[in-house]
Design a protein that fits this description.
It catalyses: (2R,3S)-3-isopropylmalate + NAD(+) = 4-methyl-2-oxopentanoate + CO2 + NADH. By secondary structure, the chain is α/β, with parallel strands linked by helices. It has twelve helices and twelve strands. The chain has a ten-stranded mixed sheet with strand order 2-1-3-12-11-4-5-10-8-9, sandwiched between helices. A two-stranded antiparallel ribbon has the order 6-7. Helix 1 packs across helix 10, helix 1 runs parallel beside helix 12 and helix 8 packs parallel to helix 9. The chain is globular, with a radius of gyration of 20 Å. It starts with a strand and ends with a helix. 45% of the residues are buried. Bound molecules: 3-isopropylmalic acid (IPM) and magnesium ion. 3-isopropylmalic acid binds next to helix 4.
């Protein structure tokens, strides 16, 4: 297979972890006989510095002409000034919208060897295997917003909207996935208060009742979900929710496995390239030290191989290589629990050795 995979290393530790993921992709290409072209483009804070734009038009063009995109992380204190003209995050929101990436898949599955790295008790997280579907191009992130003068000073607003079709397409995708996994779907909303959630609940129920009568279905209010996620995480299978609730719940969920450094995510549209990235941020405090954990980004390449290139064996090989390296006891600092740790590139080397073994 020939494929173009655009790399967006980004800021902070982004370039270090994407470099390891690229070596893994090169190894997969060699081993399985594929040709991957991997152009690298500026995005995020580095692109603001160079072009005054977190997502320069040339980067967007290159992304549009690819089969898939691998992103490291964007942002950092240097670009955090809330009064700045633009911010790295704006580039992320724009690429999601421009590429129509409405479905953000965030799997939460702890590795058994690392159960003790979780802040929760082993008995609680054992058996947890959740796949979040977060709606990514609608809701309050993209609704009207603004400020106006007000006798108190100022008044600001950010509007949350969802349309029937925006809700139906993400619920449909999540329900399909539930059917192929544990057969259970949980839809999360705030229908006791928000009109937009009452539409969400109505549409979700219609989709499930009419098209997926065979799956187990439940609705949970978002505040209760925040609780259940840490009290009984192993009882969920596929969870679907809107943009902001999904942002918050997936950060909460990402703590269950003990380290953010192991969790990948995929953002998919109806067609066109998918975008793959680790769930963690740019970690400016450890950038350039060569100690960041590259595994989440390497696991994101596995998702990329599976979802955008339909290379299931290759994806499974990468995941198996990561699992063996962890099972053999190798740890980067974030998951070493104070014990011996290895560097970013040593971790990359070990995964590559496993792949070639
Ligand atoms: C995420 C991040 C982004 C979001 C930020 C960086 C804009 O938190 O991908 O979850 O809120 O969607
Ligand atoms: Mg977030």
């Amino acid at each position: 297979m020939e494929a173009r995979i655009t790399l967006l290393p980004g800021d902070g530790i982004g370039p270090e972890i994407v470099a390891e993921a690229k070596r893994v992709l090169d190894t997969v290409a060699d081993k399985f006989g594929h040709q991957f072209e991997t152009p690298s483009c500026p995005m995020g804070g580095n692109a603001i510095d160079e072009f005054g734009d977190p997502l320069p038009p040339q980067t967007l063009e290159t992304c549009k002409e690819s089969q898939a995109i691998l992103l490291g992380a964007v942002g950092g204190p240097k670009w955090d000034d809330p009064s700045a003209k633009t911010r790295p995050e704006a580039g992320l929101l724009k690429i999601r919208k421009e590429l129509g990436l409405f479905a953000n898949l965030r799997p939460i599955k702890p590795y058994s060897e690392l159960l003790d790295a979780s802040p929760l008790k082993r008995e609680i997280i054992e058996g947890t295997d959740i796949l979040f579907f977060r709606e990514l191009t609608g809701g309050i992130y993209f609704g009207d917003s603004g400020r106006m003068e007000h006798p108190d000073g100022e008044k600001a607003f950010s509007v949350m909207t969802y349309t029937t079709s925006e809700i139906a397409r993400i619920v449909r995708l999540a329900a399909e996935s539930a059917r192929n996994r544990g057969g259970k779907l949980t839809s999360v909303d705030k229908a006791n208060v928000l009109e937009v959630s009452r539409l969400w609940r109505q549409v979700a129920e219609d989709v499930v009742k009419n098209e997926f009568p065979d799956i187990e279905y439940e609705v949970v209010l978002v505040d209760a979900m925040a609780m259940h996620l840490i009290s009984r995480p192993s009882e969920f299978d596929v969870v679907v929710t809107g943009n902001m609730f999904g942002d918050i719940l997936t950060d909460e969920g990402s703590m269950l496995p003990g380290s953010l450094g192991l969790l990948p995510s995929a953002s998919l549209g109806e067609s066109g390239p998918g975008l793959y990235e680790p769930i963690h941020g740019s970690a400016p405090d450890i950038a350039g030290k060569g100690i960041a954990n590259p595994l989440a980004t390497i696991l994101a390449t596995a998702m990329l191989l599976r979802h955008s290139l339909s290379l299931e064996s290759e994806a499974a090989a990468v995941e198996a290589a990561v699992a063996s390296v962890l099972a053999a006891g190798h740890r980067t600092a974030d998951i070493a629990a104070g014990g011996d740790s290895i560097s970013t590139s040593e971790m990359g080397n070990l995964v590559i050795q496993e792949l070639l073994a």
